[in-house]
Write a structure and sequence with these properties.
heterodimer, A: mainly alpha, 2 domains, B: mainly alpha
Chain lengths: 111, 238
Amino acid sequence: MRDFYGTPTIWMIIVALGIGTFVLRYSFLGLLGNRPLPAWALRYLRYTAVAVLPALVAPLVIWPQATGGQTDPARLIAAGVTVLAGLITRNTLAAILGGLAALYLGLWLIG
Amino acid sequence: MTDRPALSRAFWRGTRQGLPFLIVVVPFGVLFGVAGTEAGFNFWEVMGFSVLVIAGASQFTAVQLMADHTPAVLVLATSLAVNLRMAMYSASLTPHLGAAPAWKKALVAYFMIDQSFALADADYARRPEQSVAEKLAFYAGACLPTCPTWYVGTMAGVFLGKSIPPAFALDFAVPVTFLAMIAPSLRSVPHLVAAGTSVIGALVFAPLPAGTGVLAAAALAMVAGARTEIWLARRAAA
């Protein structure tokens, strides 16, 4: 990773992400004032997190790097338990703990 | 002019309500410190993410995409897309805090995370009679247990990261964290449709160059979620 980007690019990404995130946070509060967001924009914004994060996760779950891309039952089960625990408890930390518990149990049982 | 006891009451009410989030923010910060170190970032870079960006999901996104050698422009586009919801938070807080001086609004913006926003939004709705100063005091109080602890958690994760053996399968901590963040929000049909589209899209587009598949899948998923919402509303109205 380090050799691919080099230190200046790494810092460029960190700083640019920091500035961009700040602009999003400051946008209405400081720049756009009290103008309401149009309904269509709100409708799309509602789904940003749930649109981006599963796309990042899906390949990592199906083709884990640690197994050289070989689908791994322990990791599949752990992913399923995480989602279930999150759906039932509505609690992110409970879902993380449930998922990790399932992962370690799975790795220990299946190997 | 300023009512000191009222300000201090608002501040401590915010702190009290923010305290339970310690059990989310600290472990999540530790996990980011571990994930960043695992990906090859040094101490200052990992801390740079947590101090300059201070937005967990997008930090994990950037680290994951960079571990896959995604071009810098796509790393930024995808990570910022994760933070688009902040613009929505900013719009919701404007009627309450818009009258504050610019430097205070800049601080509010910097410390705007899911937890501080959710607490402030709920408190302002419950106590609409508060002055802007009281609302700011509440916000500052709510940030105290939820924001600096993010830096501390990250730092602890960096030092822990090097001492955790491979048997702990830390490669999978990132997927588990992401899934745990999404799962509680899969409460409506449009959210489920968006998440499903996102997963299928990412798998179908996997052969595309690093990062582009994720962005394409995310764009499709956003449209799918919004369209489903419109369709359901129309059906309910008919």
